[in-house]
Write a structure and sequence with these properties.
The complex is a heterodimer.
Chain A lengths: L9 H13 L12 H10 L5 H17 L3 H21 L7 H18 L5 H21 L7 H23 L5 H26 L1
Chain B lengths: L2 H20 L15 H11 L1 H17 L1 H24 L8 H15 L5 H26 L2 H24 L4 H27 L3
Helix pairs in contact in B: 1-6, 2-7, 3-4, 3-5, 3-6, 3-7, 3-8, 4-6, 4-7, 5-8, 6-7
The chains are: A mainly alpha, B mainly alpha.
Amino acid sequence: MRPTRNDPGRLPWLGAMTLMLVWTSWAQAHIEHGQATGFVTGFGHPWSGFDHVLAMIAVGIWGAQLGAPALWLLPVIFPMVMAQGAFLGLIGLPLPGGEVGIALSALLLGAMVGGEVRPKLVLAALLVGALAVFHGHAHGTELPAGQNGLLYSMGFVIATGCLHGLGIALGLLHRWPTGKLALRGAGALIAAMGMLFLWKALA
Amino acid sequence: MSRRDCQHTSRVALAVGGTLLGWPWCAEAHLVTTGLGPVYDGIGHLLVTPEDLLPVLALALFAGLRGAGAGRRVLGVLPSAWFVGGCVGLLAHGLPVFPIPALSLLILGTLVAADLRLPLPAVSALALGLGLVHGLLNGVAMQQTGAGGLGLLGLLAALFVLVALVAAGVVSLHQQWTRIAVRVAGSWMAAMGLLMLGWFLHGGN
């Protein structure tokens, strides 16, 4: 079928092609120390902690359960507030109970998904934002030395977005009755893991 | 929000953004060398330097969200201001370090994420501030590497094409989810800017 001028199906392809065209920094024939290292290390950091991964996926799933506008608002709030937490960590501001907060985030977000809780949007946003501070602060204080700041930040934020995207993709199961049950089961599992993290943090 | 509140918010945002973007300090000055001559060095510099590329993309996204009029205005103002800043930079002698790219990303990314309805003069002022400051940094870099005016010319050509493509692409987005995707990208850019700022204050590069 010949595509029409306003064919919306062309948009993702155009976007992907544009991204590939502008994403050429690794194809340079000269050596720039720390460039790829910064991005790769930043991209890998959010995946390095199971507690972080579970909480960020739970945010995506919960957003999908709640539907628009929470579907996109929660995954926007989390990285932005997490960056604020990382900022606090980077400038050396201490945040007491960081590990407990991260464990609580998995526990609470898992419970929200498991119970398919539907609070007001403001409350959901406040909860996600408050928990994101702990994750960001932990990342901010753990940043390795010798990295390229911007590339590291790019990798870090994009990886966080990917984790939320993964959660949202899983949340698409919510369209089917069996999928709803599976998501609630996943939420309960995340909450149980959060309980385990909390026990370890307090032990 | 009433019209008056909106105008007030716009003025405050404009004042804060303009002050920060126009602050006469700068970050690192460097230039990518392609081996194809100064014009291609200038083109390559914009496309492979995230410190310049991301703020420009953020402004183009924002202009696109604000409509065709804002896109056309930015298309005219940004390269012009970049040219003026670049010319000044070519004559300057070293600048103190300040995280300009971080602030540019933070401000413009936040504007994109919030989809703030700034009036056309405010969008123009943002383009002016961004162009002058980043142009100044590029001018200094080109002076140091010997790319000079030709490098600046190449960079301006790349800038014009990039802003035209991105802003026009966003203007043509009509489905709600596509505009939301643009705003999500803006929130990521703001988060990157904030992280960069923290990194700078932490003492990293």
